[in-house]
């Protein structure tokens, strides 16, 4: 049904796609995977008319297809749901779903609102997305409900080709099940569903075939029944699953950070632990266990009601992130777009956001020194493309995460708190971040690693803490820790 031949695309001299040949069949779910920056989203944006290809041809059912604009693609039945929402936030759910096709009333130039609400409710009910008030203004919805409205808007026209670019990143398990039910329904109706995701478990559950892109080129296409995840990872990153976590050196005995009896009313209480220089201390627990609240208090982002902090043996009391940074503590937050970056600013300015004080003299930023320092960090962390005047919003998710890390490394922090450092990034970027964490620990930096991924905790940590209901309930050495023990402690199950 779909054939894309010899597709090339470059941005500012950087080759994003290099002669990609891709084909897919009617009525199949075809997953597209690869590391951040591999060209997945670029290929799909070319198909949906969002950006123009430099070279190549696109065929639908054997005939050349005009996808020069999104409108042209819509006329061919091609609809896309991107990572970034394209909703109109001040309009209602019904208005967004029926945008461009509002039912007219008998009064010329007016809308039949009762009919509009009925149609929107029918669309949501038909695709299984219940519980959303079609009269609600979109900006007041949760992020997951906004994602469901975005998907409903695309599915409402029963497209010939449906592109889903990381659709599950903000969905709960129940909402993900509804999405999969919709995908299977579209497949039965003959729609080609192109599914981009870095979550391989999802891909193996929903896809009929999987195509791998790497460095803008097509590596190959496999079937889930004949290729396991290990083979897929080797195709994506060029190494086996067993090589993902780097070897670790034992930490020294010197304590970098000591937390004693820390508490915050309604969030957590009596949290105590120590972090040594050169140690990776893992902190796991179920959602709502209080992990993020603890690290925000350590960083001075939220006030604590009780307890003490000691940094290199000296008592400290950061009352703001600025004071924490001045003390040598840094926090990489779990939401990089909301709390970590200014997306409309450049790589240069984002990387130096927390370091302007030492990059300035008499209140004036030393631009040459700033550029040199940022360029060095961009090189060390392999941020792509390595153009420091490029806007942060133009980077892939993995490179945005590296940029947040660069920002905190520029502060020369001696205690680095990482809250979900690999959320929303692909396997290859995870490998790079894991190696970076190991290298930082080897340099004597104490690292507190908060993660919901148990393999990450087990693969990186020298010790692992488990939180439940706002308290530290267990501690395991690297030799003692296992997924079963961590889960049991988090759920309050005795072993």
* Main β-sheet description: 6 strands, mixed
* CATH topology category name of the largest domain: Rossmann fold
Provide the CATH architecture of the largest domain. Answer: 3-Layer(aba) Sandwich
Which parts are unreliable, with pLDDT below 50 for 5 consecutive residues or more?
A: none
> What is the count of distinct domains?
2
Estimate what percentage of residues fall within beta strands: 25-35%
What structural class do the secondary elements suggest? alpha/beta
The percent range for helix content is 25-40%
The counted number of beta strands is 22
CATH class of the largest domain: Alpha Beta
Query: Total number of helical segments?
Result: 18
Mean pLDDT: 91
Spatial strand order of the main sheet: 6-7-8-3-9-10
Q: Looking at the structure, what is the overall shape? A: globular
What is the alpha-carbon Rg in Å? 25 Å
Taking the alpha carbons of the first and last residues, their distance comes to 55 Å
What key phrases describe this protein's structure?
Rossmann fold; alpha/beta; 6-stranded mixed beta sheet; 18 helices; single chain
């Amino acid at each position: 049904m779909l054939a894309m031949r010899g597709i090339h695309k470059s941005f500012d001299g950087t080759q994003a796609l290099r002669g990609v040949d891709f084909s897919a069949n009617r009525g199949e779910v075809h997953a597209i995977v690869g590391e951040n920056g591999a060209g997945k989203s670029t290929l799909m944006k070319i198909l949906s008319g969002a950006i123009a290809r430099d070279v190549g041809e696109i065929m639908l059912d054997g005939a050349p297809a005009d996808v020069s604009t999104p409108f042209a693609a819509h006329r061919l039945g091609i609809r896309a749901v991107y990572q970034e929402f394209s909703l109109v936030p001040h309009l209602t759910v019904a208005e967004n779903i029926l945008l461009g096709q509002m039912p007219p009333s008998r009064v010329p130039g007016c809308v039949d609102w009762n009919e509009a609400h009925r149609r929107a409710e029918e669309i949501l009910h038909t695709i299984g997305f219940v519980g959303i008030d079609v009269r609600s203004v979109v900006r007041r919805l949760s992020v997951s409900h906004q994602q469901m409205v975005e998907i409903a808007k695309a599915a409402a026209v029963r497209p010939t080709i449906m592109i889903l670019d990381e659709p599950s990143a903000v969905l709960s398990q129940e909402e993900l099940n509804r999405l999969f039910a919709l995908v299977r329904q579209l497949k039965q109706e003959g729609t080609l569903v192109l599914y981009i995701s870095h979550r391989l478990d999802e891909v193996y559950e929903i896809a009929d075939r999987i195509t791998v892109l790497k460095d803008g080129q097509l590596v190959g296409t496999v079937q889930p029944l004949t290729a396991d995840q290990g083979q897929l990872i080797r195709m994506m990153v060029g190494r086996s699953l067993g090589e993902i976590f780097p070897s670790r050196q034992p930490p020294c005995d010197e304590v970098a950070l000591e937390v004693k009896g820390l508490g915050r009313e309604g969030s957590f209480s009596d949290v105590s632990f120590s972090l040594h220089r050169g140690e990776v201390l893992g902190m796991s627990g179920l959602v709502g266990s209080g992990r993020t609240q603890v690290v925000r208090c350590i960083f001075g982002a939220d006030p604590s009601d009780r307890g003490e902090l000691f940094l290199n043996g000296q008592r400290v009391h950061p009352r703001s992130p600025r004071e924490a940074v001045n003390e040598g503590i840094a926090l990489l937050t779990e939401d990089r777009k909301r709390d970590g970056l200014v997306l409309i600013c450049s790589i240069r300015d984002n990387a130096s956001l927390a370091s302007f004080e030492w990059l300035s003299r008499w209140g004036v930023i030393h631009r040459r020194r700033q550029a040199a320092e940022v360029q060095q960090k961009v090189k060390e962390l392999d941020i792509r493309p390595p153009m420091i005047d490029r806007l942060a919003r133009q980077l892939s998710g993995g490179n945005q995460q590296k940029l947040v890390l660069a920002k905190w490394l520029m502060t020369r922090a001696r205690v680095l708190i990482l809250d979900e450092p690999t959320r929303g990034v692909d396997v290859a970027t995870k490998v790079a971040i894991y190696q970076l964490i190991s290298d930082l620990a080897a340099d004597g930096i104490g690292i507190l690693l908060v993660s919901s991924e148990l393999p990450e905790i087990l693969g990186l940590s020298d010790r692992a803490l488990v939180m439940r209901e706002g308290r530290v309930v267990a501690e395991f050495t690297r030799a003692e820790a296992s997924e079963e023990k961590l889960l049991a402690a988090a759920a309050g199950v005795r072993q």
